[in-house]
Design goal:
Elements: H1 3-16, H2 25-28, E1 33-35, H3 45-50, E2 55-59, H4 60-65, E3 77-88, E4 94-107, H5 118-121, H6 132-142, E5 145-148, E6 154-156, E7 161-164, H7 173-187, H8 189-192, H9 198-215, H10 225-236, H11 241-258
Helix pairs in contact: 1-11, 7-9, 9-11
């Protein structure tokens, strides 16, 4: 079984157990998941979905190098990072090849070491920011129409507009803006000519919405968690492991497009 399949199966298992992997707070806030060795956040949307709680993580080698040990009975977490290299194809041209490497890491509380970067990962979330200017700036840049009303949210690719019910029709501000950013996530396809099948495109938009909410200090919410999870259990069966990896990368790209963030630092895991 490949690393990509391992990741997909682990995340699918979380859904089966009633956990929405992309609703974990640290998925949208990378600074909550820190490398104990150097204090850098863990990159990769999938890695952050795999880890169980905020804080510092270290490999066995890093733990041993600091004179620590793993506590008896503790279990490690698998994380994955990509390495790229050039490979010559049959036409003599260079292709970029991505190889996923797996590592086992332990939460610092499962070791005898003390945390070094608690001031980073335990910092309070950003103040709840105003999402409206983000919407207005992106809509102008993308030449996208925004309409309010009706009883359902959707994006029209042929007419280049999104429509979302009025905010008063939602149970919370977070639920309203989650719907807005979901549709904006769909609309980013115009910048990259993204043509995914339904389930994969829905995953892109949903992951994008979670990243956008986290950026603004809001927590993703859903009106009916049981129905939401059941819906995604069904959709996930229509997504292949490699497609899931593509969707994660596309979601991060879409989020950065909406916020006009430089994409050169996008994750490659």
């Amino acid at each position: 079984m490949s690393a990509t399949e391992d990741i997909f199966n682990a995340i699918s298992k979380q859904l089966e157990e009633g956990v929405v992997p992309w609703h974990k707070p640290w998925v949208a806030r990378p600074s909550m998941i820190i490398n104990h060795y150097n204090g850098t956040p863990y990159t990769g949307l999938r890695n952050r979905m795999l880890l169980g709680c905020a804080g510092e993580y270290a490999t066995m080698h890093q733990i041993n190098s600091e004179g620590g040990r793993v506590k008896k009975g503790s279990k490690g977490h698998r994380v994955y990072f990509s390495k790229t290299y050039n490979k010559e194809n049959d036409d003599g041209e260079k292709d970029i090849v991505y190889v996923l490497r797996a590592f086992t890491v332990f939460h610092i509380s499962d070791t005898t070491l003390e945390p070094k970067f608690a001031h980073i990962w335990s910092a309070p979330p950003p103040a709840d920011c105003d999402a409206k200017p983000v919407l207005e700036e992106y809509a102008t840049r993308a030449n996208l129409g925004v309409r309010w009303g009706g009883d359902s949210a959707h994006y029209s690719p042929s007419h280049r507009y999104i429509i979302v019910p009025d905010e008063r029709d939602f149970e919370s501000r977070e639920e309203f803006w989650g719907a807005v950013f979901h549709e904006l996530g769909h609309s980013t396809e115009i910048f990259c000519d993204r043509k995914y099948e339904y389930a994969k495109e829905e995953l892109v938009a949903e992951l994008c919405a979670c990243l956008c909410l986290g950026h603004l200090g809001m927590t993703p919410t859903v009106k009916n968690s049981a129905a939401y999870i059941a819906s995604w259990k069904s959709k996930i069966h229509d997504i292949k492991p490699n497609d899931f990896a593509d969707a994660c990368r596309s979601a991060e790209w879409a989020y950065k497009t909406i916020f006009n963030i430089d994409k050169k630092d996008s994750d490659n895991e």
